[in-house]
Amino acid sequence: MHKQCSTPRWTGTFQIAFLLSTRTAVMTKSASLAAIIAAFVPSLITAIIFLVIFCLIRRYHKRIYAPRTYIDLISEKDRTPGSSTARIEWLKPIWQLGDKFVLEHSSLDAYLYLRFLKTIIFICVIGACITWPILFPVNATGKGNASQLDKLGFGNVHGKKRLYAHAVVAWVYFGFVMFTIARERMWLIGLRQAWHLSRTNASRLSSRTVLYLDPPKDVLVDGESQSTLGKEVMRQWVVKPTPKLDEHVGARNATLAQLESTELCYLKTVNKKRAKISKRNGSGVVGLTDQTISALRPIRKQYYVLGTESDAIDHLQAEATAKVQKVDEDRDLHSTDAAEARSAIFVEYATQSAAQRAYRSNPKSKIPMPANLAIKSKLIGVLPKEIIWTNITLPQSVRLSKKSAGNVFVIALIIFWSIPTAFIASISNVNYLAEKVQWLGWIKSLPDPILGLMVGLLPPLATSFIASYVPDILRYVAKMFEPTTVTAELQVQTWYYLFQIIQVFFVTALSSSATAFVPQLINNPGNVPMLLADKLPSSSNFYLTYFILQGLGSATKNILNYSDLFQYVFWDWFINKTPRDKYTQYTTMKGIGWGKMYPKFNNFVIIALAYSIISPLVLGIAAIGLILFYFCYRHQLLYVVQPKLETKGKCYTRALTQMLTGIYVGELALIGLFGLRKATGPSIMIAVLFFGTIAYNVVMNRYLSPLEDHFPDDLLAAEGEEEEPLLTAEEGVIDGADEHSRIQSLGNSMHIPKRVVDPVARFFEPHIYASHKVMKTFLHNQGEDGDAIEYTEDELKNAYTNPSLISKPATIWLPQDDMGLSKRLIEENEKKGLKSTDEGAWLDEKRHVKFDEDNLRQLPAWKKPIPF
């Protein structure tokens, strides 16, 4: 069942749009305008069709399109208002509710993802405001021979003096982007620190627990653990490999599920037989004899289709009882002796500050050893539900070996993907190639609308389709060695970022430009450098259409989400039969994979930055596409998605640092293009900017990376007291009142309205508005600084215990029926020691399984979540 909020695998049927756009397609030799029209018209029509269908069917499928407005597992205070069945009622909360509603009622990562989209939209919009008024006139009057939209690009400029404009604009715009990234990183540091130190989060068990992966054997435990792991150790959980027990627990659960399914099938068969007899006799309800009922019991063969026959239910009951006993025996034999094959230790400390200090330092050992042989890896803030238990017990050497193998696999995957990606991208310039290669001459005879779709729509559509499967492959590989789902998702983000940059950007850009100069390389290699300088900017045409296709087609497709609708209906009708299966499907809300989402849209802004000076039009088109996606994901996070994985802002931090790739590529491209034009002055300016960007990157990472990983000493020392602003640049600015007074006095002195000054100050003074104290006030206003969390002794005892050691056999859940047969089966199961019930589920008149959807917390399958 689909559980991740994913990028679209297909943009939808566009044949209707194609027929309606044939009269407005390609009418000139330039591919620029034709490609945009060919991508825009069908994408727009497809988007309208998707939205119309969505408005028509939304009221009938609230479970797919609005579960956050009513489903019982979401508390009343966290539900999104707007559960009306009116066709456009869903627009009202999207328009009225701010992103802070997501922070208060969903998750920190969900809020930060929306902020990430707004940040890159802001970067693109400001970029258009900076570049368009200057570079459009310079390029358009550049005395080149380009036509249509190509005249607005760098390739239409001939003359060295004009290139100074591009160099100056690059300094201004790239400098602005670097300041924005630094500002966001500082803001995020303040927010995360305030969020971690809030009363509620600081009291969570995970906040004061450190995971030591593969600690050395001489680290003492039990009574003397304080001498090695710290004086404030409260308790610890030793984790050992349990491969056989895991296997037996899995077999036990599978057998119980099979028994549950077999007994349900028997229930339906008997009730169906009874209904047929009643209908044939025409005399209302008819009972069945015990003999008839017994004859309908399912039969199993000893060797599937051969061998002796036996009662399937009796056999499964006996098998389930034996496997339950086997699990209990294995648990009795399991030893938690830390001296035997210890692989990991969870250590709870008295306070969050103590846990943070332990996380930052190495434990002391009675046997002196080099630092690299002490604790090799530590994690803090790990939730029990995030642990990948089969990986957490891997020795560090095995984990590193698997990670190396994973990196090799990903490199091979990226290289392999270059073949289809390069072929697809080359289609974007196939009309040029047809003029130079004789055997492709037939392409020129194609009708203009078909050629326009082939050049403008097909390449980005195919690129998006084949790339959509990559994150699932990367996640599967990462979960083979990463200890938690969070670290696995962060690894996916890194890998998928590299894939996006290399495949969707570099390979595509070079391939779409390569077709233009390959014939020239063969016929006249001496002109290749100048030809490259002229043709490289034209590869931006691909991304203009790519942004249009993604923004219109993919964003609206995500809202309609027909794939999830079809999948839900299919599983409900044909796959999920038992009350437990239907309950699980109904209550499992759609999640979102941050490692998959950030790289795709980070690549949007990276491409826009790389082409911002070469082809400024890309900035505007990228901004429009991102705005559509922003509203799409606001809808998803308000109505549909329940984030299951919390990186606590780490994905956003990583995305901000990766964003600099766009600046580096843009600067290197300008250095190369200026060099080919022999423009010495502009080349020197961009070279200085390039090395300045490197220095900026090094300095920012040096000072901000430690704050992004752990808390500073002064903040830990002030826990529970009134903290000073972490990022304050001058003495005296310590509270919100002083800050606002300063801003107001600034506005008065400059005769600028306060409503104008405040947003500007918030942006240009992150050392004040990103301070820990301001962020603490912000979170308090959003209800994020509530009461402390308390736990029972049993909850603490088993918090970080492998589920294989403590999980109980599932209660066999059957639906009630009018014959009372479910009661008989329950009695049979109870005699074999198998707990069973038929509460909250029943067979309707058509023998379909139903359960009480209005009281999910009262059903046997519900498990109370514990806020660790």
Question: Describe it for me?
Answer:
This protein has 868 residues and is mainly alpha-helical. The chain folds into three domains: 4-199 and 396-709, no CATH class; 243-333 and 808-858, no CATH class; 728-769, no CATH class. The chain has 37 helices and twelve strands. The strands form five sheets. Strands 3-6-2-7 form a four-stranded antiparallel β-sheet. The longest helix is centred in the N-terminal third of the chain and has 39 residues, at 243-281. The two termini are 27 Å apart. Residues 1-31, 364-375 and 720-753 have low confidence and may be disordered.
List the topology elements.
Elements: E1 4-5, H1 15-20, H2 31-57, H3 62-65, H4 91-96, H5 100-105, H6 108-140, H7 163-197, H8 199-202, E2 209-213, H9 226-229, E3 233-239, H10 243-281, H11 290-295, E4 299-303, E5 306-311, H12 312-333, E6 344-349, H13 352-360, E7 377-380, H14 389-392, H15 396-426, H16 430-436, H17 448-456, H18 458-467, H19 470-478, H20 485-523, H21 528-535, H22 540-560, H23 562-575, H24 579-587, E8 591-592, H25 594-611, H26 617-640, H27 650-658, H28 660-676, H29 680-709, H30 713-717, H31 736-750, H32 754-764, H33 766-769, H34 772-781, H35 793-797, H36 803-806, E9 812-813, H37 821-831, E10 836-837, E11 841-843, E12 849-851
Parallel strand pairs: 1-8, 9-10
Antiparallel strand pairs: 2-6, 2-7, 3-6, 4-5, 11-12
Helix pairs in contact: 2-17, 2-22, 6-7, 6-25, 6-26, 7-27, 7-28, 7-29, 7-34, 10-12, 15-18, 15-20, 18-22, 19-20, 20-21, 20-25, 20-27, 22-26, 25-26, 25-27, 25-28, 28-29, 31-32
